[in-house]
Amino acid sequence: MIGKQISHYRIIEKLGEGGMGVVYKAQDLELKRIVAIKSLPHRLAVVDEERERLKIEAQAAAALNHPHIATIYSVETVDDEMFMVMEYIDGRELKELARGETRMAIDDVLDYAAQLAEALQAAHESGIVHRDIKSSNVMVTGSGQVKVMDFGLAKMRGGAHVTRTGSTIGTVAYMSPEQVRGEDVDQRSDIWSFGVVLYEMLAGQMPFKGGYESAVTYAILNADPEPLRATRQAIPQGLIRIVGRAMEKDPQRRYQSMGNALDDLRALRSGSPSSGKTSPSAAALIRQPRFMVPGILLLLALIGSVAWWYSREAKQQWARQQLLPSIEQSIQDMSWTGEGGASWKAFGLAEEAKQSIPDDPLLARLLKRFVRKVTIYSDPPGARVFAKPYADTLSAWRLLGVTPIDSVSLPIGFSSMKLEEEGRHRVLDVAWNALYLSDTIRYTMPGEGSLPDGMEFVPESSSWFDQVSAPAGLHMPGLESMKGERVGDFFLDRYEVTNKAYKRFIADGGYQKTDHWKYPFIKDGRNLSWREAMAVFKDRTGQPGPSTWEVGDYGQGEDDYPVTGLSWYEAAAFADFSGKSLPTIYHWDRCAFTWASPAIVPVSNLENGKGTRPVGASRSMNRFGVFDLAGNVREWCFNENSRGERFILGGGWNDPPYAFNDAFSQSPWDRSMTNGFRCMKQIGEIGSGAAPEATISLPERDFLREPKVSDGTFSLFLAQFAYDKKPLNATIEAVTETDVWTRQKISFDAAYGNERMLAYLYLPRHGKGPYQTLVQFPGSDAIHMRSSERTKPPEFILKSGRAFLSPIYKSTYERGDGLVSDYPDMTAFWKEHVIMWGKDLSRSIDYLETRGEIDRGRLAYFGQSWGAAMGAITLAVEPRFKTSVLIVAGLNFQRSLPEVDQVHYLPRIKTPVLMLNGKYDFFFPYETSQRPFYELLGTPKNQKKLFVYDGGHTVPTTQLVKETLAWLDMYLGPVESKDSLASGSAR
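^ that's the sequence the OP posted. Answer follows.
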């Protein structure tokens, strides 16, 4: 930019950077004067909110022709680049003077404070509230003149402003209490900020401090600043009073106008004594008899009030010192999706804390991390809605309200729900509350007595809890890309078919009559007769019946256990005998809710090896009050697959946990002791075009047995990712700071198509360069979000003293291009995107290598979900990584063109790899996806690790932090200087 001419301005030098862009010193070639230019980068210039913010800043400052406010000359746009031209001030920030090695002289403090007060008084009288007064927004010239800068957050009377009531804007350390709470503010908020700046000038430090933002806001709302006399002895008492009154937490007790504060400052500067009268002594009055009795009563009331006050203070202190840390710990125990009951535990603690500190700002901030508002409807309305932690039999149901419920707090994660209404059948359900799901839940209340005995109603109109980021038709690995079929309304058995129920079928002559055997008996390509089939369907003693029975009967005391040892044909015959049918995989999937496997599987009896349990004895509830779709027995479904097998879903007592999620199928003749079933009943017609009973064509992959390409062929694959190393033309477009990190929003030229790409570089505030750096590849939610501005880094990485780069890859966030899924397919479109993602990653590393504060020899790949799966390719493409961390990684069952298929790249990876996975992952099942990924890795065995935790498509936060930091220390080396990190801390 130096030397560049924009319109009739020539850039001389860069003066600084801020959240809205960069400020340059420039020469006005027409008027022959030096000016300052605040540039709004192209990517922000097209955002209406940012354009409006720049205009408001110009309008606010231009409306104030005042010697202590920087003059705005114009707002201009050239080639889509928007910028503001303003007065160039040759001076220093007031912050630099206040934080200098020596304290500011009291006379200088009074002088600068008075000038600042005059500027604010002029702004307030013109109806303008600055809302971002801080010492870095105040310049002091060489002659001692104060100039107020940056009206970008100003609120103008009668005009629009770009933030709304309920949002917090500004710089936290200078915010007034009402600003922290997100309330609308007036001039008294600027007066508070003025008091903070005045304190800063006197003490050389901020009045409210903390290690993180929430600690600072908590102090602003609840704590008193360190007394000024404790920081500096020689401060006039009158000046201490001015600071104290300006910083009253209650706006009503604060200075009501800047003019009042200015009057007190001027009086103090002129040396005039403060006025006031002394109070006469009251001792003589108190001794008079007519005051004695009322005085005693008043004293007793005062003692009672003090006791009440101390009790209240004790409760508040206990809530802040005990409950809030416990809530924070519960949040740390939560996984990304909130399963495991930790969010409900935090919710209960928060309800308790609200009794003592209902308006506590830290409590309010914590609540946002584990509670989300939902709206609940029922048809008909008037149902009482209850909720409690999923599968918790000890906790009482919590009443949420009566439908329709417009916005009620519900912990994130999985909850058991119950709806009751007079004259209606009670409804049970599993609800999933998550940020990426709809916040509206709908239920249908069937009439009392309208359900067949032992069945539950499953309405098509009820909420499905589908993820936008994974728009699957079926929630089963290998079938998730299939289009969902309509199933209409139906009934489904609450429990599996029992021994007792199945015996009625036998007693009715089920194996002696042909009536209920509707489907041809095909075995090894040959049609068997009915008699041949019946000869197969015998118990252990040769009598008709399940393979687990003896002498045509089940064991004593096993009436209510699920019947086992059945073929698909026997299950289908019993369903017909009952006037029902076997559920299709679409009906089964509608109720199973495999998304909730991290909550459902642990309370099932999968993999317990102890046999089945009686129906109704389980806490493993699925959608709509249906139980044990996970575990107990595998359940036959109607559909046949392309291999002639029938689906049998959910897994049984001796199956591994991932069996609940897998689209498992087997021979319809199989009569294993784990095989069972339940029935369904369709209500009315499904609708034209629906084919839920159709044969399913399976994607079949045995990754370990698939042939791999030769090294010569693979070199051609790698050549796809090559590009010309042209100049990056990088620009830092914005800078944002927190107590933990500094974020730079960067743009640079992509490696293809004359495109620009974005990246966010996070530098630790308390680390020591050159920094070890992790480069992120995100989860699939990035494909469906259109703004990257609110993305956040994993702060535990920054707190460890390492940097973090988050590139914005093609098809994600602002670079969306029509790609809607992270599932591979056999199209050139998918192949081209994989190649672009590889180039984006390499181009991002090119940029890091231009930064002197980055240790280019200590880079690590950090992939999450989609990004972890992509690591199978990118780690082979990009050799500059020294190690990698893959969070919930696995191989995709969907095939892609060979040039971008994971199985050809994994064996070529040689760098150390850490895999952190969930045992019940529904995207990447352990046995068929995670384990092949790990075994195909070409990394030496002693340099690759696979940790598998109890959970789904997620990893417990504490374990994520622990294993990641230990791995990075091992392969990148310990960081020289890092903040202390509490065990498991990961905000």
